[in-house]
Amino acid sequence: MAQFPSEPFRIKVVEPVRLTSREERQRALEEAGYNTFNIRAEDVYIDFMTDSGTAAMSDSQWAGIMQGDESYAGARNFFNLEEAIQSITGFRHFVPTHQGRAAENILFAVTVKPGQVVPSNMHFDTTQANVLARGGRVANLVIDEAFDPTSHHPFKGNMDVKKLESFIQETGPENIPVGMMTLTNNSGGGQPASLENIRATAEVYHRYGIPFFIDACRYAENAYFIKLREPECAAMPVLEIARQVFACADGCTMSGKKDALVNIGGFLAMNDEQLYQQVCQELILREGFPTYGGLAGRDLEAMARGLWEGLDEEYLAYRIGHTKYLADRLVEEGIPILEPPGGHAVYLDVLRFLPHLPQSALPGQALACALYLEGCIRAVEVGSVMFAEEDPETGEVVYPALEMVRMAIPRRVYTQSHLEYVVQVCKQLYERREEIGGLRYVSKPKLLRHFTSRFEPL
Questions:
Q1: What is the mean pLDDT of residues 274-288?
Q2: Separation of alpha carbons 281 and 275, rounded Å
Q3: Contact partners, residue 186, CB within 8 Å, separation at least 6
Q4: Among 30, 155, 268, 339, which is most buried by a count of CB atoms within 10 Å?
């Protein structure tokens, strides 16, 4: 029996939402080109598109916003953020950015040259795209268990260290400007990596002289999973686990819109002084002066406070339990999901949900559209639209091993009754799953197809 965790907060402000009619939703889907990114937010009842920038901020964060110092350079809020980042991560230098992909853009602009390769456990969409945009390539070297949606391996986000070492030897460390690791592993279902594995990954990177950077968007959730699942860390505070994780690395990128609980903001941190100077020059060109980096002073303050709130263990117990409740209820109803659930989202396993549709019919996108049509729930495809690749020599489309629909849960936003509504909609869809048809492209860009492509029913 699924258990719903008690919220460690009270609701103070509410925002009205409306459940539109099926006819309105059908019209909205057609106007959106069957792409849920193109649907107006006011036409969505439950918005599970992303957990990025969609959190409810706290009274402390809103109070901090009123203390924003909007000076162009040297605002006091920058130094509050600097204190939080250095205390939590231990990295000597950082620059703020307007969000995580901006941090990735800055990092890869000063490190990646055409033809070079950036390995990771699994890159997420913007990380991969920023490498490709610089003429580089990516390699995903997560453990094999990550591709089995029914495996209950506790750390399915782990790097396959043997694969990594073989890859470095075959590619040549001189052709690898930086090594990455995504915590938690979003592309693989929000799965965590263990502290033991992070240390082993760092040892391999450093033995070959490769700087190690962490994609730290959900580092606090990852640290809490380590506390829950890694016996030697059970008695450690989450903050100490996080510090030990960051101590393995040379730097990190972060979207503060996840575990820093803000609506906008991110940062790039590092230890290397020379790299920092290069980053500052690129930042000034692309984002802004190094003490504001594309953000208002009030945003810097909200992120400084949110970084500490995101590490609160009562909050994290609620956050992980909230997501697990939705996953457990779906499993109770016999609906196939990727197991075990991660911290920020529940991923529907599309290949088991819609076995009658081949990946060429874009079943993940079709299921995301069906969720909206059936229940006014907005989710996002993580599968053939997001990650399928065309072989440059044969032209053959190579489909990803996982085909999923991600229902990402905004932090401190939805109640138990909202989650129960989602379960019932998924149940209704699953009972009529054979009625769901596939989609085909009408238009698509070269990179990040899922954001702007348009589709039509087959």
A1: 95
A2: 10
A3: 122, 124, 217, 218, 344, 382
A4: 268
- Which residues form the domain of 110? 59-309
Residue 12 domain-assigned? no
- Residue 339 carries which DSSP code? S
* Helix, strand, coil percentages, rounded to 5, for the chain: 45, 15, 40
Q: Does residue 190 contact residue 343 with C-beta atoms inside 8 Å?
A: yes
Whether residues 333 and 246 fall in one domain: no
What was the pLDDT predicted at 304?
98
The answer to whether the CB of 355 falls within 8 A of the CB of 415 is no
Q: 67 and 108 share a domain? A: yes
Q: How far apart are CA 256 and CA 217, in angstroms?
A: 7
Give the chain's mean pLDDT.
Answer: 95
Tens digits of residue pLDDT in 384-441:
998 888 877 787 888 989 999 999 999 999 999 999 999 999 999 999 999 999 999 9
Amino acid at 282: E
Domain boundary (276, 291, 309) is at: 309
| Residue 278 CB neighbour total at 10 angstroms | 15
Concatenating the DSSP letter of every residue in 253-290 gives EEETTTTT--SS-EEEEES-HHHHHHHHHHHHHHT--T
